[in-house]
Known about the structure:
Rossmann fold, 6-stranded parallel beta sheet, alpha/beta
Amino acid sequence: xxxxxxxxxxxxxxxxxxxxxxxxxxxxxxxxxxxxxxxxxxxxxxxxxxxxxxxxxxxxxxxxxxxxxxxxxxxxxxxxxxxxxxxxxxxxxxxxxxxxxxxxxxxxxxxxxxxxxxxxxxxxxxxxxxxxxxxxxxxxxxxxxxxxxxxxxxxxxxxxxxxxxxxxxxxxxxxxxxxxxxxxxxxxxxxxxxxxxxxxxxxxxxxxxx
Length: 210
């Protein structure tokens, strides 16, 4: 099996990132890194619209992800699968913080960015916000009950903007309307696509699953 380095699975809430990352980790026999949203004590208040909790929540995620993606830890394994992209920090911060809070956040982010491993491949999962919202409701996490379609639409737009201008590593875009991240056969087919795209060393979105 090819050594893929750090593989980051990206996309909006409810698109299937953790499900796919878990399958890839198992098939590749690679370490799995999952974001620690369950440990964030400020997240429920943030999602409920509490502006005072927003900065604390975003800083918690920033520091947690920076610790998980420390270069020394990541580079110890030939392949590591992560169910998020570190760059999502800035997407959520811009959506949730006011100008003053953002100035504080920016300074903290600058201090940790140099310490983290960068992805060698991004798998970007895309689906409609309607489908993602349905999955969010089905899994029934209390802290996600306040998520609305307009909010997901904004998040989707921010991810599209990010990858429209992405140049850091190859990106494989997967249309989840035609792909089942729970299906073993689909995941193995995706793995072949990942190996091909990774070998190309391109810096644009390389493929859309049809």
